[in-house]
Amino acid sequence: MQMVDKEKEENSEPVPGIPPVELKRRLSEFISPNRILVRPIDLVAFASDASFYRLMPQAVVLAANVDEIRSLFSFSRLHQIPITFRAAGTSLSGQAVTSGILVEVARFWRRFEILDGGARVRVEPGVIGGHVNQSLARYHRKLGPDPASISACTLGGILSNNSSGMCCGVAQNAYHTLESMKFLLPSGTCIDTSATNADDLFRVAEPAVAEGILALRRRLQSNPTLCQRIRSKYQRKNTTGYSLNSFVDFERPVDILQHLLIGAEGTLGFIAEAVLQTVPDFPWKYTGILFFPDLYAAAAAVPILNTHGARAIEIMDRLALRSVENQPGFASTIRSLPGDACSLLVEFHASAEAEMPALKRAVKETVARLPLLQPSVFTDVPEDRATLWKIRSGMFPSVGATREGGTTVIIEDVGFPVENLADAATDLRELFVKHGYSDAILFGHAKDGNLHFVLSQTFNHQRAIDQYARFMDDVVKLVVGRYDGALKAEHGTGRNMAPFVEAEWGREAYQLMKELKGLVDPANLLNPAVIIAASRTAHIENLKPLPRVEEEVDKCIECGYCEPRCPSRELTLTPRQRIAVRREMTRLKESGEDARAHVLSQDYEYMGLDTCAADGMCATACPVQIDTGQLVKQLRSESHSKMANRCAAFLAEHFAMTETAVRWSLRIGHLGEKIAGRRVANSLSRAFSHLSKDALPAWQSDMPLPAPVIAHRAKRSEAHGVYFPSCVSRTMGRSPNEPECASIQNIFLELASRAGKPVFIPEDVRGTCCGTPFSSKGFRKAHEIAVNRAISRMWHWSERGRLPVVVDTSPCTYGFRAARPYLTAANQALFDRLKILDSIEYVHDQLLPRLRIKRKFGKVALHPVCSVKKLRLDSRLEAIARACSHKAVTPASAECCGFAGDRGFLFPELTASATRAEASEISATQYDGYFSSSRTCEIAMTRATNQMYRSYLYMVHSATEGSAAETH
């Protein structure tokens, strides 16, 4: 017991002691105060990562450069406050939480550079792995590590956890593809190992560390048995503890240390930059799913498939499959499987199309010898392959979503010798039964003997905690004692396995690790309690509470996949953080801490509700389609008074009056600015906005002019479709700085006429709305009134569904397409017979093939709005732009602009933050036109880039002339 207490005392995190305001003041001496977060809502938002641990930081610092990191190291030493680095926060084992200072290295660390025609890439820690792969795709190269979370995780986490993934194996992981690194040690020393004299510089700057590393290497080399054990263990996936293979693989201290930093989880230093070798991304892939009668049979097939060249083999047991059996693609097949079934997702690669026939024959012969439940399904069609991989990549969050409310989800990733995989998997399944985890599932990278197990667990009482502790003890005995496997294969050691590092490696190897930590970080201030455990019970301490909240988001496991899609992610909160704060508010209320809950609630009004675009893009990245915007709409709805709801319903009933008011407001605003001057007009409008509690937007000089009155053209009897100009198109015309031009209504009518597919605008279109403006604000009744009226009118306009209804604003199209749940039973029947099209569909499918291109634009920039992406029309928009220009570009950083109807008018800072990256990318190149498909989003992008964004319809109109039919 004395030994345990002493170890706990030596390795535990220092107790925070500086009040938040004073801490911020001191940190502000070298970091901008607006990048130091100490409010309760900020600390709660960053207190947890994707794991089941939570620690409340003293402060969150958004570090911007190496000098600031160096100053933070100095501050940490002076005040004995620990530091933990965090980028995406998708860590599954608690590596990115702390009770000290959490240093966020995502938003200012996103630069990357493709080198040598894609053979190498220089990256900073905040770069999302998927973004790098998008840029490498043109070279048919990719990063070696390929974790399932690559669309959300960053290179900082990939390097610090030595992540691998589906196809990566060992040879292509971060350790083996590292070429050089710029790192910063706790002492403040910065070394760039790409320099030819890097080792000399390191020895001069850090003689004690350099000599200490060599001494550890000599000691290890003097033990041939341990050296051989290290070589053997790293032939398989293994991230338990520090990368001891560095001492075996390299001789120079600087080379040893930079490879020790891979997988060190930020406990030895900060990785500021790295150069990685890329690997081939074979253009031809053949992917299939195999169903076996049981887990043993599936696992036993893995060595056979490995022998025949499979590049990826993902195992999924029956319970794992059940979690995704409602996803499109193979739902019916999966649901029909027997209870003991198991599957393998298998992929083969070819470097050329000519190799595919032979590859397919070989696969067919190999698979024919396997004991399958049903014939295999293989495909080389990219869309079908993506469907298969989506089943696998979203499995962990999907499993988490099926857990009982109030429980957390735990994932671990053990590794076994592949030849023992069938027996080991069966034994692991027996452990689940023994310890009462009937819902536990198994899946993972079977090609490498790497199994993930996922189980739901409550930590609300000691009995449950003890249950989990006993289970983990048995897991260690099974993995290490019976199969000499790895307790951590790819997720980094983290808090959950830190107490068991010595059990896996033995006393001598573990002592080397402890001495290494003490050598490089003698004060134990960098991410303490991770890798080198703070106590023998560290894995059951600082557990994350998950109280039940609203049904819309209760299934969220806080994985973080949603965050890159969120427009407010760098301004206020992300979807994950909105849910985390909401959970904390609930927990505080349930525990009687009303005062603290009230503090959070006050800040949540702006941070959580006002600045949420409610665009639903978070759901497109979430494996279980959680739309945090729906939660926000519900909470907005609950905050409305009865009077507010009645006013909204009145406006919906009399929407023609609302249109008139908007048009007159725009007219009066521009007139007032002309008479009184810009400054006076802006000051007066800000005063009115303040009095209305932000219900009315402050006037800005770039407000659009009122749209001209619709000129009704085309006879109804000759029309091929109904044209529904949205209320935005009917009220908001061109920008003040835009040259005078025809209205979007006249442009679309003329295009349709040119193509011989004329459309008509109904005479009573005025006052008709899709209801989205009311829905986004949480006025449910007003939304229902508006959308029901619109559908009823569309039924008559379309001659009982005979004609398609074409909408010229994409968010409105999406609003109509998603309207069915809000319709009366009668209108649902009408809705089911209507064909509501976005103008992009109508132009691409009906008009463009009948138009001749007379003058192409040079290079054009596109901004596909959120609804275009959700409707999956971005490829058609790009096809239209390619037809009308010599080059069409959609910026890689194009995401939601954050304008969200009128949210950009009310909270312009949301749009400024959401568009910053895209605007920077746009400004690097000159374009001949800038186009989108939503008037408000065009205003947003014009503000962000100082370039005039217009409807893509103007591009088509300018580039084309009459159809072939007109000339005959």
Q: How large a portion of the residues is in β-strands, by DSSP E?
A: 5-15%
Strand order of the largest sheet: 15-12-14-13-17-18-16
Radius of gyration: 30 Å
Largest sheet: 7 strands, antiparallel
Number of helical segments with 4 or more residues: 44
CATH superfamily of the largest domain: FAD-linked oxidase, cap domain/gating helix
Compute the number of strand runs: 28
Determine and state the CATH class of the largest domain.
Alpha Beta
**What is the approximate shape?**
globular
Mean pLDDT: 91
The helix-and-strand class reads alpha/beta
Describe this structure in words.
By secondary structure, the chain is an alpha/beta fold. The protein folds into five domains: 112-279, Uridine Diphospho-n-acetylenolpyruvylglucosamine Reductase, domain 3; 284-485, 3-Layer(aba) Sandwich (Vanillyl-alcohol Oxidase, Chain A, domain 3), CATH 3.40.462; 547-626, no CATH class; 652-835, no CATH class; 844-967. 45% of the residues lie in helices and 13% in strands. The protein is built from 44 helices and 28 strands. The strands form seven sheets. A seven-stranded antiparallel sheet has the order 15-12-14-13-17-18-16, sandwiched between helices. Helix 28 (642-653) packs parallel to helix 34 and helix 32 crosses helix 44 (952-959). It is globular and about 90 Å long. The termini are far apart.
Short overview:
The protein is of the alpha/beta class. It is built from 44 helices and 28 strands.
